Amino acid sequence: MEAGDDVAGIYSSINRRCLLMFNNLFGSELDLTVGQFQVSDPLFKRELRLTNSDYYIYKIRPGTSLVDLAYDRGIVLSYEFESGTRGGFMELVFRPNGDESKWYAVALYNYVNLENHLLERVSKDVNSLAVHFGYLLKRNIRLTAEFSHDFNNKYGEFGLGFVTAF
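Given the sequence above, the corresponding structure tokens read:
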């Protein structure tokens, strides 16, 4: 190992996803996270979802903040308190032959109820359902079809596409 190898390895890690997390600082409910990450990472990795529809509870912007719980980098100090937001999501994934399945189906339900008037300026209530079907054409090519509908709106959305990686 040469002198520059250590620094290059650290730089490479930071360019991907690297974070340090300290919980219950000073014996309190205060947590500190530093690095490049999605704020929602400790709960669930958003990029692992199969649907095009997002987990909308992660997209809420608390109060007058310009950040949400999606991708961000920097320093996060968190303290548990009432935010005025109630919600969550449920996801059901069906693969008839487990890991050997060529096709799969996903149902994703999102519910976000904003009880705080400050949140309403930057976000909205969500009550939505998405139904997604996928077919593994090749090992690295997946065909997809999805219908999603927010029950607060008149119209739904339909999408066809494919996902690939090389």
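The two ends are 31 Å apart (CA to CA). Try to locate this feature in the token string yourself.
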